[in-house]
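Hi Y.,

Following your request, here is the sequence exactly as I used it, all 207 residues.
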Amino acid sequence: MNKVTIGLDTAKSVFHLVNKNNQGRVLNRKKLKRARVLDFFANLPPSIVVMEACGISHYWCWVISRLGHEVKAIPPQYIVPYRKGNKNDYNDAEAITEAAQRENMRFVPFKSQSQQDVQLVHRVRERLIGQRTALSNQTRGLLAEYGIVLTKGLAQLTKGLPYIIEDAENELSIMTRHQFSGLLEELKDLQIRIKQVDSQIKTLVTN
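Below is the corresponding structure, written out as tokens. Let me know if you'd prefer a different format.
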């Protein structure tokens, strides 16, 4: 039996889909609340389900493919030429279906859940590194406003800052020392978090 092709326009709350047979004839259009999507596909015979490649499409690939469907994703730029009329959810879903049925269409390989996990951890690490850099630069800038300059490098900053906070001869006020102490604790916390993430990355890579 030839499989029906279903163009699925994903969203946060309401999904739209368009079914087409192998001759390109629209069989039906349907609107589904997010909570009903899996129930709907669970009750369909094996079909080809196609969606626009995006951040959330990997998740929907995993869960819909487990229900026995063949799931694919198309880069957004390859869908646009097949959209008829104004951009709306049903037109988007139909454009996805039509693009999927074209010969030589390019599909995006889905990441496995483990690949997605690795990407997630790397993104978290990148953000933490950015926060640490911004905090280090801010701390150095604030120290410079009090005439205190440390050698470049994170290690020099975290090593030198405790001595600056305790130095009674540098004329820093009690409030200022308290603030620099808080900045130092933030840096230490970020260092700990980054080491934890590095350990997670190492575990994911070796498994």
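The radius of gyration is 27 Å.

Thanks again,
Q.
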